[in-house]
Write a structure and sequence with these properties.
Layout: E1 6-7, H1 9-16, H2 23-36, E2 41-45, E3 48-53, E4 56-62, E5 67-71, H3 75-83, E6 93-96, H4 104-114
Parallel strand pairs: 1-2
Antiparallel strand pairs: 2-3, 3-4, 4-5, 5-6
Helix pairs in contact: 2-4, 3-4
């Protein structure tokens, strides 16, 4: 049995304050990351929740156009963007607008690759 994920109080505050219309999308991405990285600690880093493991981290943030997932390495984002060119991506971020289908399996692959798994 896995122990509950450790989430810092400031990360919980950020998560609780996510506004509509991004709440549902954020919650789905948050759940996917936790499901994919059950050993992660969730802390607030650079003013956003960071899901930290021994191998690396990913972060979620809410902006004007949707919810972004950020990594510390570029290769997983480039691979994800090659499969989903319709989504905006930067060097280490992917933006998910609230009106698009979430490619859950590819998000899981992105998260795993970002932490070296």
């Amino acid at each position: 049995m896995t122990s509950p994920v450790e989430i810092s109080s400031d990360a919980l505050e950020y998560i609780a304050a996510v506004p509509e219309p991004f709440r549902e999308l954020f919650d789905r991405l948050h759940a996917l990351v936790l499901e994919t990285l059950p050993d992660a600690r969730v802390v607030l880093s650079y003013k956003m929740p960071a899901y930290v493991t021994d191998g690396g981290r990913v972060s979620l943030s809410v902006g004007k156009a949707g919810v972004s997932i950020a990594t510390t390495v570029a290769a997983p984002v480039a691979a994800f963007h090659a499969r989903h060119p319709e989504l905006k991506a930067g060097k280490v971020t992917v933006l998910f607008p609230p009106d698009r289908e979430l490619p859950a399996d590819d998000v899981r692959a992105l998260v795993l690759a970002a932490v070296g798994r």
